User: Fold this.
Amino acid sequence: MARGICLAVAAILATTAARAEVKIEDEYKTNGFAVGCQAYTFNRFSVMEAIDKTKEAGGKVIEFFPGQRLSPDNPGQKFNHDADRGVWEQVRRKLAEAKIRPVNYGVVGVPRDDAGARKVFEFAKYFNLRTITTESVESIDTLERLAKEYDICVAFHNHPRRPRDPNYKVWDPNFIANLVAGRDRRVGACADTGHWVRSGLKPVECLRILKGRVMGVHLKDLKEFGKPESHDVIYGTGVSDVKGILDELKAQGFEGNISIEYEYKWEDNVPDVTQCIGYIKGYGK
Assistant:
C-alpha cells in the first residue's frame, strides 16, 4: 500500500466521517470496549446456545449471523431476517434473560431492491442493533439511504484476498475507504483483523486507512502472518498485534463492537474465548 495514497484517503475519511448516532450503552462495555462474540464462533451450536456461551465466556454483546439454527429443541428453524416475528421474540427473551445486548448482524447479503433490503433493516431495528455487516458493495446506494432512514450503521466486511478473483476487492482497506468516502457517516467498515493478516496486511495500518469509518471489528489473533490457512489463537499469543489494534481503536474513539470470531476448536472454544476477553479486561493495566 502506497503511503501517500493511504494518508490521502485517511484525510478524506477524517473530514467526512463522524460518530454514529446509535450508541452501545456503557453497561455492556468491558474496559471501555463493547466486547462479545460473533455467534459464528459457535456455529456448531444453536443461537440460544451461542448466547449462553457468550455469557459464559464473559462477553456482554453478541453479533448474529444469518441462518444459525434456533435451539437444540428446534434445530430445523433458522434464525435470520426471514424468520417470523415469533422466532425473533424467542431470541429477544433469551437475550433479556442472559443480559446480553445484540449489536450487529452479518455478514449478510443485502439486495439493491428496497423491499428486500428493508427486511434486513427491520430485523436490525427490532433488535436495536447498531450495525448491519455486509459485503454487498453493489447495493451501497440502497444501504446508505436506509442507514439514514433507520439510523443504523452499515459496515463493509473483508474476507481474505482471492488471487484468482480480481473482482473481489473488499479485502483491501483502500478499496473500502474509497467506497465509503463522502457517504453518510453511518456507512463504513467492519474490520476483520484475521482476514487482513491472512491477506498479508498489518491490521493497525489498515485501521489507520479507515480512520473515522470503523463501525465494528472482528478481532482475531492468528498463529502465522500471510498464510490463508493460519488459525486463531488466544489474544496476545499470535502475530496480529492485538495491543496495537486496541491502542489504535482507542485513539480513534471507536464506539462500535468488538466481536470475537474464534474459528478454531469449534466444539470447545469457550475456554480460549474466555482468555481473549480476559486479555481485553487486562488491556492497559
